[in-house]
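Morning!

This is the sequence you dropped in the shared folder:
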Amino acid sequence: MFIPLRLAALSVVISLVSLGLKVMAWRVSHSAALYSDALESLVNVFAAVMVMVALKAAAKPADSEHPYGHAKAELLSAVAEGGMILFAAVLILERAASTIFMPHLPSAPVLGLGLNAAGGLVNALWALALGRSGVTRKFPALAADQAHLVADAITTVGIIAGLSIAVLADLPVIDPLIAMAVAAQIAFMGGRTVLRALSALLDRAPPPEMVDRIHRLVATHAAGAIEAHDMRIREAGQSRFLEFHLVVPGTMTVAESHTICDRIEGALKREMAGVIITIHVEPDHKAKNEGILVK
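The structure's back. Tokens below.
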């Protein structure tokens, strides 16, 4: 758990650097669009802090009050992050609305856009580093942080392009219009983040390809059993919980059925580290002739 926590801490530092550059860009330019980008970077800082806190909480082992562990802390942090993004969108819209009837071109546009570009580059490079680390595939909180950084970098490119056009064409109204577009974009992103996290908190089923892989593994390693049915799978952060009924011949001993269960669990855990498996063994008259039929 040390590596993801270290990456989360570095995300906080890097987000602060990017925020500082973008706040300076807004202060020298007084641009509504650059204000919107700075505000989004402020959300990045809070999000990075929450990712670090969530990873520490999720790493706690199961206890008497939380027998299934604390993995859902990552999902709760995603809900909070999405809420902050939506709040930032409201603040940006308020700022843009206050300037749209009296728009003005950015002051010191070259310096302002240069500082903003530097802030966006910092985010883009760190998002690339997170992706190459491979850790984002295992930790949903870090994956969400990386996605947010990528979106921030893309937004920065759009803002710089739009403001450059505004300055060159002498069209100050483009500035608040860009801010409104940014607000709409991050509101969509915040809403999607909240909905996805809430869906996962409600024990959303994993992707079909994962379900198919589990079915193949059980069918391959359940030799001696008859079928596996009533399979249920859920994900909570980086943890997965799998349970199903395994039907075996009624004359099979407990030791023999236990050997089959061990073989299935071993194969599943080699493919999915950390999965928690519960297998309920049943005699052959409980067969339903459905689910995974073992040959």
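Headline: The first strand starts at residue 227 and ends at 236.

More detail when I'm at my desk.
O.
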